[in-house]
Here is the input.
Amino acid sequence: MTFDTLGLLPELLRAVGDEGYTSPTPIQSQAIPAVLGRRDVMGCAQTGTGKTAGFALPILQILAPGANTSPSPARHPIRALVLAPTRELAMQIYESFTAYGRHLALRSTVVFGGVDIVPQKAALRGGVEILVATPGRLLDHVGQKTVNLSRVEILVLDEADRMLDMGFMPDIKRILSLLPPARQNLLFSATFSDEIRRLSKDILRLPVVIEVAPRNTPAELITHTLYEVDAARKRALLAHLVRSREMKQVLVFVRTKRDANRLMRELVRDGLEATAIHSDRTQAERMDALAAFKAGTVTLLVATDIAARGLDIEHLPFVVNYELPYVAEDYVHRIGRTGRAGMPGEAIALVSPDETRHLADIEKLISRKIERRPLPDFESGGARRPRSHEPRAHEPRSTEPREPRPREPRVATPAPHRAPVKAPDGFDFTKPYEPAAAPEAPASAAPARRPGRPVAALLGGLTRRKP
Ligand code: AMP
Here is the structure.
């Protein structure tokens, strides 16, 4: 299938060509006709599937007849509003609109917190057709009467699950109350909790339901490796791996902002190039950190789950789980940062004895036992203690506040799995991904149905239903 068959405007086809895209991804081939048909859409898709173009291209097309170069702000009311959970994701969506809309006279801007509000006010005052925003900052603008949402025709809630996890529900409700009731709604979420289902029932009218897998699945492209190591030796092991394997571009996950800051400082002290990204850093710091990491000028980017959500780093070769996440699904999100765009990736977990319970949860979730790599010098419980000149890793502090995420650590400890085993619904994560629906299939009008295992969708995409 090519983009030509989707009925897109020549200006958009040109922009798509400028980006070097040759064929639409599965979510694009399903979402674009649905949105152009003015249907509400419920999309089960992660970052990395091409979902941004899946909504941005048809939105630009819908707005195109009103495109104009008039200097009058009144001729540029906000007609499409895109809400996203994080600044980084909002920025990436805005950049996509700018890229795909470069041959059209439509204006867009992005507003998010942590930066000066004044330039945002000026951009809004000038008039824009497309506004990308994080909920909190959008409400700041509402409070200061610098934004008018009364002409919004299309609303997009991107990464809705993460917005709810981050406690944005009251903000979203408030924003919804400010929008015209007759509008088109597009909701994208990687997982389908009961809360998401409720939200979609409240907002969406007879939505077209689209479920797609990540473009490249961990099962196909990501190698998982695991080192069993005492918490106090993790940093030395990480430094050893980076140096001995000459690793470049390593995204390192920890649980808390404090852990991220501390680990970054310690790695720098150890002579490695490291930076950090988490929600307490200013927007400028986060953008600098990401730019340096993307450009390859720093080797290690230490991140918390929230900050890393939605990051799209092309060809990221390594993800290190320095501390395992409390919530097993986060492991899937974390490792989904690598193994993209057809490039292989490696997910490395450093697991201390106190984390075996989280590891068991993860292995159960992904229905696979992660390969243990012996490294005698670093093995946990070994007799060897760090020498005095070696860096000492900090102990993970489970009592520290995590990024704002109202989930409790799990307590259930399932028995360790012998893998590979099949998931309860029969899905085998070790097999290559086969799309559940042919990508060419037109978007089907269907009432909101209960998607199958969300994690299956995340990992390999498929939703198998019992007959
Ligand atoms: P997204 O899931 O929207 O964050 O997109 C993930 C990445 O896929 C981005 O780097 C896009 O530039 C890229 N992308 C989107 N659509 C296509 C396409 N049709 N062909 C190739 N790459 C694409």
